[in-house]
Amino acid sequence: MRIVLTGASGIAGSFIARACRAAGHDLTLLGVGDGWRLGQPADLRGHDALIHCAFAHVPGRYRGGEGCDPQGFRRANLDGSIRLFSQAADAGLSRILFLSSRAVHDGHPAGMILPDDLPPAPANLYGEVKALAEAHLAQSPLTTTAIRATGLYGPGKANKWRDLFAAHLAGRQAPSRIATELHVDDLAAAILLLLTHPAPPRTVNASDLLLDHRDLLAMVSELTGCRTPLPAPADSSGLRQLRCDALAAMGWRPGGTKRLRQTLPALVE
């Protein structure tokens, strides 16, 4: 398949690019490293599918990623995405995959279970922009899917726990926290399934672990012999958790705790 991938230099995009190439797909990259920014015209002719991962934001922040320029944030990420979706249809592509976010559900009640087809309820500009882009995409004549992914982890630029681990190894006790997590390779595997599925849903969830920082840092201590006290167990009762029934029905099986343990040695410096 001939694929255009935006945001290939980002955390998700870099792993998706590697997976697509390993699967034998012909890949064209669009991103800042290639002289393209979200909102600019893109020549998509001659391709079969678009995977849209590009997102303009303040470094290190998604929620709150608008910084002090909410209008510019909306213009780049919403208007730019809508323009890109239209360009894909005009160029004759057959399929679009859009990397959305679980943030589209931040306004739902605490503790709610979130099925794949749940209508969004954003509570911040990040979630609102993703939800509005999803809504526009759903009107496309092409085969489209928005992937509502949870927080990602992995090696290299995907190592979001670098500072957490460094503080733990330096003897500083971490605060309690619990969150859902997904390995970047598992997200890439979901993308590959959706690329070739004959009739994918308009929206799918992508999540794996419910991970308490107490348990995560206990694994780090086990690896390193660190004796820093662990944080108290976090309260998970208010956490909104994604159900991933649609991807599971396609045969998707994320790596769970086993993959986390396999990845940790590369994350602990």
From TrEMBL:
SUPFAM superfamilies in the record: NAD(P)-binding Rossmann-fold domains
Task: Tell me which Pfam families the record gives.
Answer: Epimerase
Source superkingdom: Bacteria
The record's listing under CDD domains reads: SDR_e
Q: Which InterPro entries match?
A: Epimerase_deHydtase, Lipid_A_modif_metabolic_enz, NAD(P)-bd_dom_sf
Q: Where is the NAD-dependent epimerase/dehydratase domain?
A: 3-205
Gene3D superfamilies per UniProt: NAD(P)-binding Rossmann-like Domain
Which PANTHER family would you find in this protein's record? BIFUNCTIONAL POLYMYXIN RESISTANCE PROTEIN ARNA
Protein name as catalogued:
Nucleoside-diphosphate-sugar epimerase
